[in-house]
Design brief:
heterodimer, A: alpha+beta, eleven-stranded antiparallel sheet, two-stranded antiparallel ribbon, 6 helices, 15 strands, globular, B: mainly alpha, three-stranded mixed sheet, two-stranded parallel ribbon, 31 helices, 57% helix, elongated
Chain lengths: 356, 754
């Protein structure tokens, strides 16, 4: 059973110590591996006077729906303007009708797609405008229903994977979230891959990622009727017969815990360090271990829930509050971007060796 | 009877001809038959005309057995299409079946056929079966036409044939074979779609639309059913096989090969006609080349009925053959998904010839994303895909030298690698690594690798040493290429400036750019030092396993040849490894080590006589490198080598293991053995006749040379060392003799100095 460390400096380092003739060698400065770097994450959007901060956006279309998350590599030659959107819509329509899937509705309605700019998600001047893709099916009896809704966004990420010299040719959306039929989603993703030379993959979250999301999102104040903070642990490979264990905390309890850890007003908190995350989650887990005598710190999180968002390790997200739309979207964007920039082939060596 | 007599008399009365060869006789008979037909007119009665029927039979017989020449085909076609004769449709059809080429079919004949068919397409009652048969004939002999330029010009005429239901399937097939990008027009697509609505989605129309879609996807955006396994059915199989047999039989006579490349193109195009249905759910590991993005590019305007003149660029997916690819090399547009280059050698060649920074960035980002997100679990399918991707990455790195994609991959995956999965592939990727500094190499490769080195078994250690030796070799070759070109450039500049200054050509000393020289030498030197230390530690762990010894010797052989074979101005002695191997109990190891020492001696000698500055050093004092100038002054590296040489000769030959030396050169045996061992370890304990490595050989030598009943001891070999050297040479260890003859100048104990 682990005790909550009082001092962050005594948190054990995660370095694997292997004593060899070269262990004493110092690392190349500034190039410490990913796992050794202390990470910080933002909690609040950057203030930007050029934006019309008084403008209130309606995010109701995003809330209270389960979205599946996919990561995208940078799109090549993707233009955000009305004329291009028309071509894209026409082309996507052709792909949707070309696919011989059985999901075509029995009333034989035709499908039309539309591309629009989704306003209100540009929290940083470097972020591209979020783009929404909707597929609407017209029913024979009249009326139409949205059968697929997809949103490509990039919310305030740090390092950009595209070299600065080529940024004009690429548009980077780390994440696309989709709600709708899975087969149709695959058609849309394949269409993006074929036409914009990108690669898509389902976005999954590791235990560490979920801990970050849990810690960051539970600092938000969501009122008395807010959803509880959920820690769902998976026991699939541990115990036969039990899939998950759900542990719920009141959101106010978690905020009080944060208050004690930070010893400052949460509203003034703008970033969180990895040590803080370890402290918070460690405190919750040690409390659970003391209460239930189950060593939760050895288990893997499969889902975390907070008053503003629920996120599962399989790459699903559900948003609850418009006021705090920035934080969960920023977290998933950062996590996807961090994973991609880990494998940086372009930052260090874009130069051609023409004499080779 | 009378008629028979008449016939026989006519034969008798004919002048006696020289005996003809069978082929000439056949040919003349055929020509007679043809000329009979040519002389026919509208008034000639053919019913009951014996000569007519005999001529037909003659033509059929000749054609089916030997085929027709170009001229004969042209003549026969003239006969078939001639309107002013009473030849029935059945006979004409029979004659069409006789149009079997012996080798080639003249394009003019095909043009005549098409023009004849076109006269009936728009007139009542429309084309007949004969026209259909002729069109089928064109499809059968398509491969053997001697040119296609005129046929391409008649594309639009042939397109009109689709309006006839009888000619539709064959016309579509012919158009499929002939279509090129500028033949695809919107009005043609619209006509085909109209036809589809009228007659249904015939497989031949869908096939033609498919090839149109390949060239211009934006003109055919609608769905195309892929339920047909074959677009164009193969008609007339017997006729086809007859033609193929006859042409093949005649080809042995030495046909022209000029159209072999065209045949390859035709074959590729025909393969496209037989499209297999692919599973829609199956996502390929690496995409196929295609031009889908053209559909939505800014230059495309769907409202125009004709394509803009775009002969400046050709999409890669539209190239059917290697010759077309070579011709259009400067105009090729990359496919929409550049990741197709990972398994397409022609695209890799294109990237090497025309490296485009944006394209490379696209590829790197794709690879980056696949490795970061693409493999989420470790089940068998994912492992196979991962391995395939690594294989593609390796072959790509080997083929496209102008840029490398392995650095990022190795930097991220090596720290997490367990040393077991995909070991040969990962090591192969490591050998493709091209660092710009030693720090980069150490951080990306050496640091994670050395941890695995000390925690894995001897086989991993051996693979690791082999891979790093190969990396050293590759780095020396790459840097040699760069340095050679820079040397030449600097030399030319130096000579030019000398000429300018004095007006005469003056020989200047070459001065290599110091930054490049230092960087290359630094990387190689530090890599050698790294390997030197790591190998010794590894050998300690594995009790000097023979496999490690062998791989280490490969490393030493490379290092010793860096100056002479790779022309790197560096001679570095990996002293720790050499000292360790000196104590080996394997004669083969010691033999190879002697060869390495000889190599080093040659290298040091070559450095002195060379006009180039070179760095000589050893790994124990790698920071204290010194440059050996052509003036011949000694350097620390040379001193170290001299000391080593004296040790080896003293150890193996002279039996002076622990004796003090008059000079002050360092010695590894410069210590006093412990008192309890002082009596047991003599000065000749490690010689070639007393050493533990040579016991077996010494025994064999004594057994062969001494009496059977004599008590033998290796010490008895000492007076006969020279003969023993010959014996070792006979036992496939000539290196010892070479070492002694190179380094011991006389039989009176004089050691050689550099």
């Amino acid at each position: 059973m682990t005790e909550t460390p009082q001092n962050s400096s005594t948190v054990p380092s995660k370095i694997l110590h292997v004593y060899t003739p070269f262990s004493a060698r110092r690392r190349t400065p500034g190039t410490a591996p990913y796992s050794q770097r202390q990470k910080n994450r933002k909690l609040t959007a950057p203030s930007n006077e050029s934006f019309e901060s008084v403008e209130i956006f309606d995010y109701s279309g995003l809330l209270k729906k389960t979205w599946r998350l996919y990561s995208l590599s940078p799109l090549y030659n993707f233009k955000v303007n009305a004329q291009s959107f028309k071509k894209y819509a026409r082309s996507l329509d052709a792909s949707l009708t070309e696919d011989k899937c059985s999901f075509a509705s029995s009333n034989g309605g035709s499908e039309r797609s539309s591309f629009t700019v989704y306003k209100g998600l540009k929290f940083n001047a470097d972020d591209p405008e979020a783009v929404q893709i909707q597929v609407t099916e017209k029913r024979n009896g009249g009326g139409s229903t949205i059968v697929l809704n997809a949103l490509m966004f990039c919310v305030d990420i740090g390092d950009h994977p595209v070299p600065a010299a080529h940024k004009a040719h690429f548009t980077y959306y780390p994440v696309i979230m989709i709600t709708g039929n899975k087969l149709r989603s695959n058609v849309v993703l394949n269409w993006l891959e074929r036409h914009f030379d990108c690669h898509t993959s389902p976005l999954t979250f590791s235990n560490n990622d979920l801990r970050w999301i849990l810690a960051c999102c539970s600092t938000r104040d969501a009122g008395h009727k807010a959803a509880p903070v959920l820690l769902q642990y998976s026991l699939q490979n541990v115990c036969e017969g039990i899939k998950t264990i759900d542990c719920r905390f009141e959101s106010t309890f978690c905020r009080e815990l944060w208050q004690r850890i930070q010893n400052t007003s949460l509203s003034s908190l703008t970033t969180l360090k990895e040590d803080d995350v370890e402290t918070f989650v460690g405190a919750l887990e040690s409390h659970l271990e003391y209460t239930m005598h189950i060593v939760f710190s050895k288990l893997t999180l499969s889902e975390v829930g907070t008053p503003i968002a629920y996120v599962s390790s399989q790459g699903k997200i559900k948003l609850f509050q418009s006021e705090d739309i920035y934080l969960p979207l920023h977290l998933v964007s950062s996590i996807a971007n961090d994973k991609l920039t880990q494998f940086s082939l372009t930052q260090t060596k874009p130069v051609l060796n023409t004499s080779g | 009877m009378a008629s028979v007599l008449t016939r026989s008399m006519s034969l008798e009365s004919s002048p006696q001809l020289e005996p003809e060869s069978p082929s000439k006789r056949r040919s003349s008979a055929l020509n007679n038959a043809m000329s009979f037909f040519l002389q026919l007119d509208a008034n000639t009665v053919l019913r009951g005309n014996v000569k007519f029927h005999l001529s037909v039979d003659q033509i059929v017989k000749h054609a089916m057995n030997h085929g027709l020449t170009r001229e004969q085909i042209t003549t026969l076609i003239k006969i078939i299409v001639h309107p002013n004769t009473k030849i029935s449709q059945a006979i004409r059809t029979k004659l069409v079946k006789c149009l079997v080429p012996s080798s080639k079919v003249p394009q003019s004949a095909v043009v005549r056929v098409i023009s004849w068919i076109s006269t009936r397409v728009f007139s009542d009652p429309g084309p007949t079966n004969l026209h259909s048969v002729l069109l089928r004939w064109i499809l059968l002999i398509y491969d053997y036409i001697d040119g296609y330029d005129q046929l391409h010009k008649l594309y639009d005429i042939i397109f009109c044939f689709i309006h006839s239901y009888l000619l539709l399937p064959h016309a579509c097939h012919l158009l499929f074979l002939l279509t090129r990008k500028h033949d695809v027009k919107l009005f043609k697509v619209q006509q085909l779609l109209q036809l589809t609505r009228k007659v249904g989605p015939e497989s031949c129309i869908i096939g033609l639309l498919t090839i149109y879609k390949v060239f211009c996807p934006h003109l055919v955006p609608m769905k195309l059913e892929h339920s047909h396994k074959v677009y164009f059915k193969a008609h007339d199989s017997t006729w086809r096989s007859t033609i193929q047999e006859i042409v093949a039989a005649n080809q042995a006579a030495g046909d022209d090969n000029g159209l072999d490349t065209d045949r390859a193109e035709i074959k590729i195009r025909k393969e496209k006609a037989f499209i297999q249905v692919k599973s829609k759910r199956q996502k390929l590991l690496v995409p196929e080349p295609h031009s889908a993005s053209e559909e939505i590019s800014e230059e495309t305007d769907l409202n125009t009925t004709s394509l803009p003149s775009d002969f400046e660029h050709i999409h890669y997916a539209q190239l059917d053959s290697f010759s077309a690819y070579l011709e259009a090399l400067d105009k090729i547009e990359y496919p929409s998904q550049i990741a197709a280059a990972l398994k397409d050698k022609k695209l890799q060649l294109l990237l090497s010839c025309h490296p485009d920074q944006i394209v490379i960035t696209r590829l790197c980002l794709w690879i980056q994303h696949v490795f970061a997100f693409g493999f989420r679990n470790t089940d068998k399918d994912e492992c196979e895909k991962y391995e395939q991707l690594l294989q593609m990455l390796l072959s790509f790195s080997q083929n496209v030298q102008s840029f490398s994609v392995v650095e990022g991959f190795l930097e991220c995956s090596l720290p997490l690698w367990d040393g077991q999965r995909f070991t040969p592939l990962i090591f192969s990727l490591i050998t493709c690594f091209k660092p710009s500094t030693y720090n980069e190499l150490h951080y990306c490769v050496l640091d994670p690798l050395h941890r695995l080195f000390f925690s894995c078994d001897v086989y991993f250690k051996s693979m690791c040493i082999t891979a790093l030796t190969k990396l050293l070799h590759n780095l020396s070759i790459i840097n040699y290429g760069n340095m050679s070109s820079q040397e030449e450039q600097t030399q030319q500049e130096g000579n030019k400036s000398a000429r300018d200054a004095t007006g005469d050509t003056v020989l200047n000393e070459t001065h290599l750019p110091s930054s490049t020289l230092d960087n290359t030498q630094s990387i190689l030197l530090k890599l050698i030092s790294f390997l030197d230390a790591v190998i010794v530690a590894g050998m300690m762990m594995e009790d000097d396993h023979y496999l490690l010894q062998m791989t280490t010797l490969d490393f030493l052989e490379l290092v010793s040849s860096l100056f002479q074979k790779c022309h790197i101005p560096l001679v570095c002695l990996p002293l720790r490894v050499i000292h360790r191997l000196l104590l080996s109990d394997c004669p083969a190891t010691l033999a190879r080590l002697c060869e390495v020492i000889n190599s080093f001696r040659e290298a040091f000698t070559a450095v002195r006589s060379s006009r180039r500055d070179a760095v000589t050093c050893d790994t124990t004092l790698a920071n204290q490198v010194s440059v050996l100038h052509p003036t011949g002054s000694k350097s620390k590296g040379v001193d170290k080598f001299n000391g080593l040489l004296l040790d080896i000769m003293g150890m193996l030959w002279q039996g002076r293991l622990f004796q003090e030396r008059s000079n002050k050169l360092e010695s590894i045996f410069h210590f006093k053995p412990p008192s309890h061992l002082a009596d047991k370890i003599k000065d000749n304990a490690l010689t070639i006749y007393m050493g533990p490595a040579f016991l077996g050989l010494a025994y064999k030598f004594l057994k062969e040379t001494q009496r059977e009943d004599k008590k033998i001891h290796p010490l008895q070999i000492e007076p006969f060392k020279d003969r023993y050297l010959l014996f070792l040479e006979r036992e496939n260890f000539p290196e010892f003799k070479k070492l002694v003859s190179t380094n011991i100048k006389s039989r009176i104990d004089k050691t050689a100095h550099l």
